[in-house]
């Protein structure tokens, strides 16, 4: 039992408990989880919600606490360290050019069990592609995103 | 654990291996790398979204907290005016003149103010034609100001027209097939112009409903409202304006419209504001489309009786914040300044015949939907109610309506659907604290369609989006 974690979870929960009855609206879950330093994707968030949601559409603290504690203890959904991210890009950059063609990256992002939607690809390309078009200088891209993402 | 650790170990073996291996990573490794990047990017976007929402909630609290204070302050102010203005026997002062409810002296036609030859702005005459509205559009785009004389005439004609309209206006899609409904504009002329550009100017083929809150907050409330009234005069059957809670001279004192008018018109500002007071109170409070869709600015309450609402004299409710004078005397005067409309509701109000119409209108203009069932006083705003899905259902069922469209609350996406799809909130002003929250308009179409699906198109970040409802 880690009481410091419990306190943090309780505090985060309280912020959104508007009626002061130890329940929060399910729509606030994203904000609560993220305010505790965990960054699940939407799909992962929906899984969490599935576990804790009451039929009324609210979430009560008694069910939320154990689930959230487990997430914190396992360091699930922590942000990915920058150097690991860079390594991943380098793996994709098979010719070691230092950049990826936008087609290359787009193609990779369509891989996997949850490939990017067209909208996600467009969004990513709009911030990833350099001014000389068609090239993703991934080192700059990662730097930029990491800086932006810091609260 | 996730794919993070496998990536960490693989590069080590990569380094130990040959150049060959480094140049050609295994497909499995490539896949892992791609998935890692996908996951990271999605998390990053989720974090950005959360931050946007936090900023949004803070913005809303600040923005609307002011209105709550406003209602309470006005109650106090009203009490003071009613009980102390006649202590000084030298006659009514300017503030009383502005705020006390006289219909007197403004029923007769005002004297035309002469317009100098040197005036270079748009000139209009009545009855209005398309060339006049085009001239206004062009002039306002160039930040010109319509001469007070023309503005007064425009308001005067609008007042005459509105007097003939009922409290609840009925529209049908039998001719034009599509009606465009726009939410709060709040003096954002650019948004109005963009709406006209994207959808077309108002006409018999392009009917519009503007759902209140044309003024306050934005810097071009005057231009927005003059354009709306001009099109109303031009196409009275195809252009419909609902009253919002900001079409209220006391709200205008605080939220910028009064100041804007005085700054732009100086000596004639006061006359304009007095006419605005009348015109605002004459705006219809609701529009019904095809006897299926109810469009009001705020919402409803469990007391809302549309038939009764249609019968009251709406122009007598000049402001939600200033009750008719005789009313205050009838109330308990020991602590009247604490009586906001919220607390009045809980008082023995059905005894007071004068109060019910006021509360009905305040409810329609100020209420917000809530997810839980029931109806409770809207403590956030200080007036109107929070109405639950059951209240909505009951009212819609009673009248055979299918949908309630309302505005009044700024929504981050420009729109929000609640109460099981029976309530849609639309908001058309872009947010000036952030870079362009897309505003929304909404087109209910006449032809029925089996599946109920609403699709959303956002062309760019700062332009209003569109919600097209396929079936009703």
Automatic annotation (TrEMBL), chain A:
Protein name as annotated: EF-hand domain-containing protein
Which species expresses this protein natively?
Answer: Muraenolepis orangiensis
- Read off the PANTHER family from this record: DYNEIN REGULATORY COMPLEX PROTEIN 8
- Residue stretches making up the EF-hand domain: 4-39, 80-115
> What is a single molecular function from GO for this protein?
calcium ion binding
- Kindly list the residue ranges recorded as spanning the membrane: none
UniProtKB/TrEMBL annotation, chain B:
Q: One GO molecular-function annotation for this sequence? A: protein serine/threonine phosphatase activity
Task: Tell me its cofactors.
Answer: Mn(2+)
Catalyzed reactions? O-phospho-L-threonyl-[protein] + H2O = L-threonyl-[protein] + phosphate
Q: Which residues form the Serine/threonine specific protein phosphatases domain?
A: 242-247
Give positions of region: Disordered.
1-24, 437-472
> Which residue windows does the record flag with biased composition (Polar residues)?
1-12
Instruction: Tell me its EC number(s), please.
Output: 3.1.3.16
Sorted alphabetically, which keywords does the UniProt record give? Hydrolase, Manganese, Metal-binding, Repeat
Q: What class of enzyme is it?
A: hydrolase
Q: Which CDD domains match?
A: IQCD (cd23767)
Family affiliation: Belongs to the PPP phosphatase family.
Listed name of the protein: Serine/threonine-protein phosphatase
Q: Which organism is it from?
A: Muraenolepis orangiensis (Patagonian moray cod)
Q: What is the lineage of its organism?
A: Eukaryota, Metazoa, Chordata, Craniata, Vertebrata
